Amino acid sequence: MNVPYPVILLLLAVTLAVAIWGLGDLAAGWGQRRRLVARSVLGSDARMLTLRGRFDIAVRRTGVGKALARRLAASGIRMPVSTFLGLMIVGGAAAIVLIGQWIAPVFGLAAAVGVGFLFLAYVRRREDRRREEFIAQLPELARVLSNATHAGLVMRTAIEIAADELADPAGEELKRTADALRIGQPLDEALRALVERLPSRELGVLVSTLVVSARAGGSLVTALRTIASTLEERKETRREVRTIMGEAVVTNWAVGALSVAGLGLINLLQPGALRVMSERLVGQVILGVAALLFVASLLIIRRITRIDV
Questions:
Q1: Which terminus of the chain has a smaller tally of CB atoms within 10 A, N or C?
Q2: Rounded CA gap, 250 and 85, in Å?
Q3: How many CB atoms lie within 10 A of CB 19?
Q4: What 8-state DSSP symbol labels residue 235?
Q5: Which intervals hold domain Type II secretion system protein GspF (predicted)?
Q6: Helices (DSSP H) in 103-186: which residue ranges?
Q7: Other Cβ atoms within 10 Å of 10 Cβ, number
Q8: Hey, is 79 helix, strand or coil?
């Protein structure tokens, strides 16, 4: 049985992407092992860096690399910036080749841009999910801090206890805050850095309470217990709102997926129909308007379903 050429290209692109991902993780593990070994020798870190490590550092020094590294760290994706960019480039190239087999090449370029937006949308989705998970842990965090301060412990020790007791992502983020406090960073700066990594209204209120109590004093235990009960109520409200609005979002994505599947079915029933359509001005206008309407519907539904609780 003859395998279609686009299917072969798709399999090759997927295989190449998985290989880049695996090599990136393998190289990251080797690099971490070498850095751990080299810590015993002063000044040997620079010599132990591999070529890939130097390239990753060079990418991180750029404006785009810094922003992307910050977003990857906030999303919890443990992947070097260079590996992420490599996967994005491979995905864009595969989109150009595959889409170019079905319709006009100009739509292949548009698909490559769309692949880049999909990668960034995935990172943003991971950021939002991690932020939601952290917000869900805030009531428990407030209770742990309240119990620790009620026992007479200082805030630095209370944060270290919370970092040990809470699961990720709260445990991981609090460990960073505890490390910053351990090396001498002021409490307000370390907590505000936590808010910058995971911006949310709930965390801002908790951090403001901790900073004000540390500066001016007051009944911190009572304030933390009140915040814990309030955050628990807000968590339940947010869960109900997200459940109610989830149907509209899923319906919108389902309609878009069915539209793309319909185009593929047309091309399967009548091979070459999409290419003939996309090479004419009328067909290009129709496809362009359909894509713009789909993107506009996504933005509108996202705006409608975004409710601040």
A1: N
A2: 29
A3: 11
A4: H
A5: 142-264
A6: 105-150, 155-165, 170-182
A7: 15
A8: coil
Q: Which residue has the higher pLDDT, 303 or 49?
A: 303
Per-residue pLDDT, averaged over 33-50, amounts to 47
Tokens 């742990």, residue? 144
- Alpha-carbon dihedral sign for residues 80, 81, 86, 89: positive
Q: Report the C-alpha gap between 208 and 302 in whole angstroms.
A: 30
Instruction: Look at the block and give the residue holding tokens 């130097």.
Output: 54
- Exposure pattern of 108-118 as b/e (b: 16+ CB <10 Å)? bebbbebbeee
Report the distance separating Cα 223 and Cα 208, nearest Å. Answer: 11
Can you spell out the DSSP letters for 236-303?
A: HHHHHHHHHHHHHHHHHHHHHHHHHHHHHHHHHHSTTHHHHHHTSHHHHHHHHHHHHHHHHHHHHHHH
Alpha carbons 70 and 74: distance in angstroms, whole number: 6
Q: Indicate the pTM of the whole model.
A: 0.68
pLDDT for 39 equals 47
Six-digit token string for 34? 């070498």
CB 169 within 8 A of CB 130: yes
pLDDT interval class at 47 (50, 70, 90): very low
189, 86, 200: which is closest to 133 by C-alpha? 200
The 3 state secondary structure assigned to 21-69 is: HHHHHHHHHHHHHHHHHHCCCCCCHHHHCCHHHHHHHHHHCCHHHHHHH
Give the integer Cα–Cα distance in Å for 37 and 35.
5
